[in-house]
Amino acid sequence: MAELDRYLVEQRERFEDELCELLRIASVSTDGQHAAEIRQAGEWVAAQLRGLGLATELIDTSGNPVVYAQSAPVAGAPVVLVYGHYDVQPPDPLGEWISPPFEPTRRNGNLYARGATDDKGQMLTHIKSAEAWIRTVGRLPVQLKFLIEGEEEVGSRGVTDLIGQEAERLACDVVVISDSCQFGPGQPAITYGLKGLAYFELRLTGPRQDLHSGTFGGAVTNPANGLTRMLASLINDVGRVQVPGFYDDVVPLSDRERQQFASLPFDESVFMQRLGVQGLAGEQGYTTLERRWARPTFDINGIWGGYQGAGSKTVLPARAGAKFSFRLVPDQDPDKIRRALREHLEPLCPPGIQMELIDMHGARGIVVPLDSPFMQAAATAIEQGFGRPPVFIREGGSIPIVNVFHELLGVDTLLLGWGQDDDNTHSPNEKFSLADFHRGIRTSAHLWHALGKIEVEQRA
Amino acid sequence: MAELDRYLVEQRERFEDELCELLRIASVSTDGQHAAEIRQAGEWVAAQLRGLGLATELIDTSGNPVVYAQSAPVAGAPVVLVYGHYDVQPPDPLGEWISPPFEPTRRNGNLYARGATDDKGQMLTHIKSAEAWIRTVGRLPVQLKFLIEGEEEVGSRGVTDLIGQEAERLACDVVVISDSCQFGPGQPAITYGLKGLAYFELRLTGPRQDLHSGTFGGAVTNPANGLTRMLASLINDVGRVQVPGFYDDVVPLSDRERQQFASLPFDESVFMQRLGVQGLAGEQGYTTLERRWARPTFDINGIWGGYQGAGSKTVLPARAGAKFSFRLVPDQDPDKIRRALREHLEPLCPPGIQMELIDMHGARGIVVPLDSPFMQAAATAIEQGFGRPPVFIREGGSIPIVNVFHELLGVDTLLLGWGQDDDNTHSPNEKFSLADFHRGIRTSAHLWHALGKIEVEQRA
């Protein structure tokens, strides 16, 4: 590994220059106005992988093209699928950028550009680590399969279809994704758990049209009154969801996890200050990190009904509705929760109101076992690359592609984020620390090494 | 009265023609675009009253001009103030009118035009009845004071200021307003009770900006969650308001009122069909009419927060809010209820949320004693004019000007509506039955007669 590490140091400037090349391509996927740049970015990534001698294709999908490349099989060693994306968020509002979004600019050790951290910079670390192996050792210690898509920012439709169709070709032992954050500056992390989601829309319909609240109030049921009653019934005043059976399948936090979370340098007052709130609340009996990462939650995401303008209007609304969601943890089943929710809500729907409950989205929570050999290999590699062992964290959000890999390929994902939570992903002045870029490449190179030592059964 | 009744029959066609003249003036007050027509309509009304020999002025106010006219004092007889308005709602949506809104058109015994019933047609009945007295008897049996304003549809600011400034000049024993409905076709009514109102806006503010509901849910309090909990706490599942002390000052329905309401031909199934609802609900222990007319109620008038667009967005909203109101009955005090509401809500506001409770509007409920001599006179007049005695009803809405007369002049108001509830006030194809127009004039003429018989103390 010494020769390899030396190569990485020697090539630093070129690696940065190449990242800048990719960042200059405005491969925005959200508006349908950048098809040419989308293809150009896909071709740029494909050319990088082809240049390493990997069998490489730019695959047309139902959505944007997907770059697929694979290295030679390595007998007895794992097959590792690297997922990333070359598309980016739009740069708006343009006026707030200090340097133009598609002219990568170095300032204070960071590289500023749209896509710098999300995900061009993080994704490229795995290509550059492969290059280092191939240019120094001559071969990779594991078989790598690169799957780099171009519509992550708009729902990953094409790549999801492709994974379903090409499950055999994409077969692997583990997936690696770098598209997230460290725990904090100087403290790398492995995200080993993601929450699932059960997202609903509730629509209540009362009278044919808005009515005068004086003439009809007290006689005709008000859908907005009914809505608040039904939604308030879903959670009690100590933050416990009241849908019967909701907690039945929840895997409790282990003592080890609770100790680990408690040992993290998480400062509630800094957290509150950053968000602009005077207090925190949630399920009684759990710390803030436990609630954010490992306990199921309930949130109203949107609510509407009646008059929302200035002043007062004495209307009894004809309709009211809300979008709301439960974040789930293993082993909660979104289908089971949907059924229990409907059974809970239906008897609460008052006379004169028609209720429509729409199931918008369901996904299970995921936890990668902490004692998996892949997890251990990742921890070792991070310690090599960052000079400090990672902390193990969970995340309250969902990453749908991780569920896709779990469900369609039957494999776990290592979420190894090189970013920082102030990198302004999706905002003006997106940045990526150049030091973290190089640490990420070095970690990735060590990851292939550590994963290569894991013995796996030969595939049929 | 025989000569007077004959006069009314002879002049029917001219009365209708004159109403059409007034209806051709597009005196829309809501948009500020019709100042010329507003003044023209005010001048038309003033000319009518001046033509009867009344001392008449078009008074400029802080808002639109007010027509004021008064006849000679009649010793020992009451002073009666007739209130009405010459402004109208906008005609939109124009495309839905069968005949143009400002070209009055007769169809099926009705006159179709914007303002036909609200309030030009109803208001004019009192001018024409005065005309009949003056042209036949030569004088009025009571002193009439006409106060006809031009911004009722936008809040009556100018006339309210004027009443405050000119309380002495406007001093009277009773107010008469015809700007409402009969109980049903062929069944005239006197509205003897109006509800009051306590209208609020509740704004809850959480984090500085919308947050990701996965990353922050369960830790940061969701203002929309808090809002539904706080609003749901205001009323229980049998329709009882839960604000402490809310019912303390409620004057209960008398047995006589309950019997009267019960004897009215009110068909719940027709009512439900018309509104398009499958059921009715409200405070337990009261009939639908009792709840609508004489029991306090709680309605959410508007509610908002978070994402209201299509699809799903996993956001924890920074803000949520609602407009809501209580309809009050005598002797509930809106100020007392506001204080009790604040005391009730404040402890329910969860940690991390800032609560702002805005008092938008307060008015007391009003009931005119059924045994008042003015009420009896009105009943007698209606029986003469409509050939059928009125029923006595209450109304769930508020009419702010009635409170103004009560508070600033210390007098009760007789609400004598000649309209029907399908007259499309505020909607396309507004109409007024021509038979009811003439019955209204006749009733009004008999009302001056009946009121003239009431002995009142001489004013200082």
Structural key phrases:
alpha+beta; nine-stranded mixed sheet; Aminopeptidase; 18 strands; homodimer; 14 helices; globular; Alpha-Beta Plaits; 35% helix; four-stranded antiparallel sheet; 460 residues
Topology (elements, then pairings):
The structure is a homodimer.
Chain A: H1 2-10, H2 12-23, H3 35-51, E1 55-59, E2 66-70, E3 79-85, E4 105-107, E5 110-112, H4 116-136, E6 143-149, H5 157-165, E7 174-177, E8 189-194, E9 196-205, E10 211-212, H6 213-216, H7 223-232, H8 255-263, H9 268-275, H10 288-294, E11 297-306, E12 315-316, E13 319-328, H11 334-345, E14 354-363, E15 366-367, H12 373-386, E16 391-395, H13 400-409, E17 413-416, E18 431-433, H14 434-452
Parallel strand pairs in A: 3-6, 3-7, 7-17, 8-16
Antiparallel strand pairs in A: 1-2, 2-6, 4-5, 5-18, 8-15, 8-17, 9-13, 9-14, 10-12, 11-13
Helix pairs in contact in A: 1-4, 1-14, 2-4, 4-14, 12-14
Structure, described:
The structure is a homodimer of 460-residue chains. The first copy, chain A, is α+β, with helices and mostly antiparallel strands. The first copy, chain A, folds into two domains: 2-194 and 366-452, 3-Layer(aba) Sandwich (Aminopeptidase), CATH 3.40.630; 196-250 and 296-363, Alpha-Beta Plaits (2-Layer Sandwich), CATH 3.30.70. The first copy, chain A, has 14 helices and 18 strands. Chain A has helices at residues 2-10, 12-23, 35-51, 116-136, 157-165, 213-216, 223-232, 255-263, 268-275, 288-294, 334-345, 373-386, 400-409, 434-452; strands at 55-59, 66-70, 79-85, 105-107, 110-112, 143-149, 174-177, 189-194, 196-205, 211-212, 297-306, 315-316, 319-328, 354-363, 366-367, 391-395, 413-416, 431-433. The longest helix of chain A is centred in the first third of the chain and has 21 residues, at 116-136. At the A-B interface, strand 9, strand 10, helix 6, helix 7 and helix 10 of A face strand 9, strand 10, helix 6, helix 7 and helix 10 of B.
